[in-house]
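Thread amino acids onto this structure.
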């Protein structure tokens, strides 16, 4: 229903002023292209659909019977592939850049090919997600069963979504991975950039307030607690942002690192050595050797090299 000018009444002058301002202003707040952008609602629905496929019987309203599982999942996966193809087609038409800051080669990339590559890689990602669930169950004595971990742990939901978003990110799809990441952030309090590279058996305990930046690299069997930031140093005034896109700006955590609540680790050259433990509320902008115990004592950092590394503190 379109309102007449008479119905708009006293609001008409303000409405006309706003419309003229929008028309005159243009980008970045006006998406004037005839090509639509990906739908946030549809992208979120795709994430939820993939959740039902990867965790059959845990989500959704339908009761699953093993004898019908093949047909049920097959139908779901086909429907999801068509929905994802439509959103990827929109994303590839947007004026964005893919991983590393390079323009998306739109004429050479077909949404159908991207979606095919996504589903070809999905079985491997599902194996990694299963390992994350086991890591959460084994890493938290309060967990009573894996069902509880899948249904109720925010860190598990966040890393599940990241695995999906990261796969699309590596395939050069713009916009959609960030929409997925922000959906997980909104629901769990965990903010993981889809560009972050995260190894197997990853566990975020409690989850709230965790931030993991775009170029972060995390090894296998790493555990983070709430409030941890793996971030970048502030950009120097006057330095062009374009020169930083694609650079390593966030830290590297090697295998079997534990980072306790409230710790902040910054910088692309910062490497936390294998088996190290970073204590709560520690602020780090430099590397530490393997098997280090880093704590904050009387406002000063204290380092200790332990023979057993992280195992000595578990």
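Threaded sequence (314 positions):
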């Amino acid at each position: 229903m379109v309102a007449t000018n008479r119905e708009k009444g006293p609001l008409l002058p303000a409405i006309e002023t706003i419309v003229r301002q929008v028309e005159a202003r243009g980008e970045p707040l006006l998406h004037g292209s005839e090509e639509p952008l990906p739908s946030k609602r549809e992208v979120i629905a795709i994430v939820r659909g993939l959740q039902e496929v990867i965790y059959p019987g845990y989500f959704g309203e339908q009761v699953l019977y093993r004898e019908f599982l093949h047909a049920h999942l097959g139908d779901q996966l086909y429907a999801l592939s068509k929905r994802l193809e439509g959103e990827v087609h929109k994303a590839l038409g947007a004026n964005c850049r893919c991983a590393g800051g390079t323009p998306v080669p739109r004429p050479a990339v077909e949404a159908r090919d991207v979606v095919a590559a996504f589903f070809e890689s999905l079985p491997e990602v599902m194996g990694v997600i299963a390992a994350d669930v086991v890591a959460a169950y084994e890493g938290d004595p309060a967990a009573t069963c894996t069902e509880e971990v899948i249904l109720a742990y925010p860190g598990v939901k966040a890393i599940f979504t990241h695995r999906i978003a990261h796969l699309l990110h590596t395939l050069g799809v713009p916009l959609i991975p960030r929409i997925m990441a922000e959906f997980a952030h909104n629901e769990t309090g965990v903010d993981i950039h889809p560009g972050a590279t995260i190894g197997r058996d990853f566990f975020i305990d409690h989850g709230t307030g965790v931030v993991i930046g775009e170029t972060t690299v995390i090894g296998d069997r790493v555990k983070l607690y709430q409030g941890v930031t793996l971030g970048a140093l502030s950009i120097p005034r006057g330095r062009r942002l374009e020169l930083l896109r694609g650079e390593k700006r966030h830290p590297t955590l090697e295998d079997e690192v534990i980072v306790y609540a409230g710790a902040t680790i910054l910088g692309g050259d910062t490497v936390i050595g294998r088996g190290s433990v970073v204590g709560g509320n520690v602020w780090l902008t430099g590397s530490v050797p393997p098997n280090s115990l880093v704590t904050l004592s009387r406002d000063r950092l204290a380092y200790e090299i332990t023979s057993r590394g992280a195992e000595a503190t578990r």
